[in-house]
């Protein structure tokens, strides 16, 4: 959406950046009576951060309730990803690993919360995600259990879908037909993964995300090599 990033309180006259606070409440007096000032810019980003410590706390010293931790992690990841966006005050942000990881953790946690039983490999993978996603860390593709690879695939497809949507809005203001075409090709690969219910090799899922990041790098920094690399990866996605 397009919003005026600077606001002015009608009650006390304080000015602040909505882009930084994400709220129309006056930071000085708490008043909800404010007006936007200045130019409008596209903005979909959120100030919300992902905090998985409440879910980790349910595990205690390792003998806690994995199912309860999975339910809480899924809820927190769902809230975080629903609010997340990639245009910050008119500038396109990167497709960050925390967002991608939150989508995967949500999918994995939902699986574990619903399952009648889980094996050790699945629980270890869930714990690895839970321990690192809010710091932008995910296990390597080789560590994904066969039973959970669909979760990684669907997370990649969803992340690319949302990033491509915001990138498309950004391109409305900064036209570039070459990168728009590349995003279109990326979208076709995303649809194929969705049609397979995410059941693709984890390396394929990660390559999809990597292409989206490289296209974003090209748009943000004008790095021609990033566009060339992204096109090359797309040609090898099959």
From TrEMBL:
Pfam families: DUF7117. It comes from the Archaea. This is TFIIB-type zinc ribbon-containing protein. It comes from Halococcus morrhuae DSM 1307.
């Amino acid at each position: 959406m397009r919003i005026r990033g600077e606001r002015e309180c009608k009650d006390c006259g304080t000015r602040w950046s909505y882009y930084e606070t994400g709220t129309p409440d006056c930071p000085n007096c708490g008043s909800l009576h404010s007006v936007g000032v200045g130019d409008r810019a596209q903005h979909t980003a959120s100030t919300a951060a992902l905090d998985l410590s409440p879910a980790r706390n349910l595990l205690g010293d390792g003998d806690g309730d994995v199912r309860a931790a999975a339910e809480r992690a899924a809820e927190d990841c769902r809230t975080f990803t629903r609010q997340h966006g990639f245009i910050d005050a008119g500038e396109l942000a990167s497709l960050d690993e925390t967002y991608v990881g939150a989508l995967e953790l949500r999918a994995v946690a939902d699986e574990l919360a619903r399952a009648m039983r889980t094996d050790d490999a699945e629980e270890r993978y869930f714990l690895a995600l839970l321990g690192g996603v809010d710091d932008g860390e995910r296990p390597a593709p080789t560590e994904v259990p066969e039973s959970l690879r669909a979760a990684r695939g669907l997370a990649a497809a969803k992340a690319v879908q949302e990033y491509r949507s915001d990138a498309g809005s950004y391109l409305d203001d900064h036209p570039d037909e070459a990168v728009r075409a590349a995003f279109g090709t990326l979208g076709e690969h995303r649809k194929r993964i969705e049609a397979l219910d995410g059941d693709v090799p984890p390396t394929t899922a990660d390559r999809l995300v990597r292409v989206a990041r490289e296209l974003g790098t090209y748009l943000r920094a004008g790095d021609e090599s990033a566009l060339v690399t992204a096109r090359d990866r797309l040609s090898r996605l099959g």
